[in-house]
Structure formats: structure tokens, C-alpha cells
């Protein structure tokens, strides 16, 4: 049975129907929801000191790192490593913005950021405007400032819109085929009685849920260590701004430790080499943090609650220094997850599947990682068939959320870059995980 590879899932917008019938099993479903660029996730370097130490930590060893505004060194460009592209020398640059290229995308040697930007612009039919009459020189800084000139440079470099449209047409064709198949059924067939979960799957799910609750409990006990959210609303007070930023980064540190603790308890994770453990955690951590964030979304008040009594809306995230370009997708993703009404078991299985993703950058033993992932894919598929026998699209919908997480991870890398431009200094553990180089 083939394993769930993230290259087996096609990126679609929230709410789109999918064309896989879960009756054929998880492998058939993942084969139907096929190939899209999930490589938008930022790749990471090989410095593992902080994360290596964290893997060796006991839960009680977690520390709250002080943060402070530190001016960027003059003349020093902000470095962000991208994943190595196959069969490339490694020193190629993006034809659009000059960042490190990851391969040929839509007929042009380009970076992941420009690839994703071009695709989104074409699919949405975006119309941008330039305050500089279309005369902006495109580089890594200006690509975020002027979308019109960035799109113009993409086209001048040779990016082809038909390459994007062909992928979209394939998706629409599959959706149409699914709709025709559904409408051809004269009357709904009686739902056959589903066999119960295999004993080993039931035991696995119960252990996963128990592990998650234990990790969450540790974070709850660490709550007093977090820098308090300031009562002052003064937007110009530097100390208040810094206190808000410290509050969020310390919550993030606790979340990272929680994820590491959970991963270390997954059967087989410690069988991997330390290098593969670090490679998996570096790229999955932000996605799991976003998945956990979505669990805490309250649609009634449009806020996210951490550790039971820390509740934040979009304005609070913005006050802490995050940009709306990152905040809005977080809340949109959280709302979409909330609409699925997942339970603790489904969240725990999704997290385990996310951790054991063999297509992560710098993973060496792909076969072992795939073998470790497969039982969780099978268990999720079986669990959904029993819990939701009438919803044959729930399994592929959940897999599509993993695709959305990859896209959000790419947006997050842009947010980290923006924090550097604001002279925000991240704690060492977060700098290591998110590959921020001073």
C-alpha cells in the first residue's frame, strides 16, 4: 500500500468539492487528489543546535527566552535559505527577484515565493496597481512591496500562464466527473454496516489522544512562565509593543516544546536518525502549530484561545507585530477547520501524518518515514468511514487541509522575513526552527 505523499494532493481553494471516493481506500484517495506544488514550504538549513537540544530536553527544561528589538547590521542582507532543487548547482538565482532559485517553475528558473505568487495571481485573475507607474526595480525587498511590477517581471522572465491553467483545468475536469457520477445515482443506496476499527487501530488512536492531552497539560502548567499581555493600549509605547511580541513568542516556544514531546512519543520516531528527526520537526512544527491554533478557534467571537484563558482576535495578533497578510489566512484556515467539526482523534491522527511526511527537505530515510506514516493514514481513513459513513469526501477534505498548511507555511516564512525587517529578534529556539540567521 502506498503511503501518503504530499505531492499526491492538489491545492484547491477552501470549499471546493473533491473527486475522490473514500471507498477505495486511502491510497486510491490520495492518488485521485493528485500532484500540486507543495514545495511552497520554506526549506531549512542544517544547523541543528537549538532543536537538537530541545529533542534532548525533558518537558520541565523549557525556558522562556528574553526577546528584544535589535537593529539589523548595516549592509547585511537578510538571508533565507530555500530548499535545494534537484540537478542544480545550488547557486542559481530567481529570474524575477534574485532570491535563491529552487527550480524551473512555469518555464522560468525561479524561487518558491515567485512561483506561488504567479500561480495565485493567474488563478485569481488579479489586477494590481503600482504607485511608481510600473518602474519598480524588482528584488527580494520590492517583491513584497509592488505586486504589479512583480507580476510584470514574472511575465517578462517568461512565466507561462497556460502552465498554470492546465493544472486548474485538470482539477475542474475531475470535479465535473465526480459531479456527473453523483448525479447518475437515481436514489441513495443504503449505507452498508461498517466493520469496527481493528483492535490495533483502536489502541493507536486512544494512545494518540492520551499523549496529546498529556502534552497539553504540561503546557497549561507552564502558563505562569509566559510574559503577561500588557494592559496598556498605547500603540507608540515601545515597551508595550515588545511585551506583546514576547508574549506571543513565549507561547510559540511552549507550543514547539509540546510538539517535540508529542513526536518523541510516536512509535518509530526515535528509530530515525537525529538528522531525520530534526528535518521532520523543522518543517512540520509551524504547520502543527497552525493546526493546533485552528482547534482553538471560536467562530462566535472570531478569536483564538490558548491555554484556556489567553484569547486573541485579529487586532491582538496585529498589535504583536504580525501582518494582516499572515493573520487573515490563519483565521480563514481556522474557520475552515472549524466547519469540519473534527474530534480529538482526527486532529491527533492528522498531526501524526503531518510529522511523518517523507517529502520534507533534508530527510534521508524516506522509506522508513513512509512506513511509519502509513498506519496513521490507514487509521484515519477507517475512523472516518465508521464515524461519517455518509460523507465519502471527508477523508480527501482532511488531506486537502494538509495542502493548505503547506501554503500557510510559505506565508509564514514571508512573515518571519518581515519581522527581520522590523528588527524583531526571535528567541534562539524559534530562530533555529524557522531558520532565521542573524
From TrEMBL:
SUPFAM superfamilies: Glucocorticoid receptor-like (DNA-binding domain) (SSF57716), Nuclear receptor ligand-binding domain (SSF48508). Residues 91-166 form the Nuclear receptor domain. Residues 200-438 form the NR LBD domain. Residues 30-51 are annotated as: Disordered. One of its GO terms (molecular function) is nuclear receptor activity. GO terms for cellular component: cytoplasm; RNA polymerase II transcription regulator complex. It comes from the Eukaryota. Gene3D superfamilies: Erythroid Transcription Factor GATA-1, subunit A (3.30.50.10), Retinoid X Receptor (1.10.565.10). Keywords: Activator, DNA-binding, Metal-binding, Nucleus, Receptor, Transcription, Transcription regulation, Ubl conjugation, Zinc, Zinc-finger. GO terms for biological process: cell differentiation; lipid metabolic process; negative regulation of transcription by RNA polymerase II; positive regulation of transcription by RNA polymerase II. It is found in: Cytoplasm; Nucleus. Signal peptide: none annotated. Residues 36-49 have a biased composition (Polar residues). Belongs to the nuclear hormone receptor family. NR1 subfamily. This is Oxysterols receptor LXR-alpha-like. The gene is nr1h3.
